[in-house]
Design a protein that fits this description.
Layout (H helix, E strand, L loop, with lengths): L24 E4 L4 E5 L10 H7 L4 E5 L18 H15 L6 E6 L1 H12 L4 E7 L12 H18 L3 H13 L9 H9 L4 H8 L6 H5 L5 E6 L4 H13 L3 E6 L5 H4 L1 H17 L4 H6 L23
Parallel strand pairs: 2-3, 2-4, 4-5, 5-6, 6-7
Antiparallel strand pairs: 1-3
Amino acid sequence: MRSSLNTVPGAGSLHQSSVDGSPGYFAAGAGTPIVMLHSSLSSKSQWTSLAERLALRYRVIALDLHGYGDNALPAGGASFTLDDEVRLVSGHIDNLTEPGAHVHVVGHSYGGLVALKFAQSRPDRVASLSLYEPIAFRVLPENDETLAELTRLADHVARLLAAGHRHDATQAFVDFWGGDGSYASMTLPAQAGVARRLDKVPLDFRASFSWPNGAEDLRAIAAPTLLLGGNRSPAVVQRINTLLALTLPNCRAGSLDAGHMGPVTNALRVNQWIEAFVDVCAERNAGFANAYERVAVRGDVPARPNAGVSANRAGV
């Protein structure tokens, strides 16, 4: 179905640009800025439905990360780090928002990790974080068996890609995160589209294995944070979410009946959580805890989103 983002009443005209003059984002609406960061193998268009909800009341800005959407692969890939993504995001935010304006940041998977790093690097710019399963692999202990499984996936994808087996590599990656058969269920044009973007995935893995350097990096993130996850997601990201919920100082966690691709496959429910959270953070005049309690009256969000979360802090 064709997006109606351009025709949302009061949202203003959708337009695209970037700090270097080539397309790399869409923006709509007016008011407090909300910046949206997508997962690996995706693009800014992942957030179209959420942007349509929020553009009536906020300034929504969805960005392409390096190597996705309108952005080319980064030059000098061997030296690529998460800081390169943060610089890209920072440049857009500085270019598209008022100087010093606080922005609400939404991120999924790899985009969620970029959001965390941005919040740690630019705490003066972040009003809140809404994250769905950020792939903060380094919070896991080195001997964690789910981390070993993830490392094997990264090596497997890299080997297949180097050998020229692009579609096999894409299938391995997509099926790990989306479940067996996810790649086969896609249309042929969709398969070709994600396979074309696979060259960035090894760089995403490398960047994701490099940060955080320790618990202090995460505890420095004071922004109120909503941490969402799916009960059908791979064990590795469920484990990461549990540890992040115990480490981030202003974190509230919630679980949905969804998988790792929940923001796409269960967009309506995920978007309701994010919208409610951003609303209370944008409106709050009191402390974060009091503000969050008002989320419960919105209907779909549990009053005690941290209930049932338990884990030790080892490896953070």
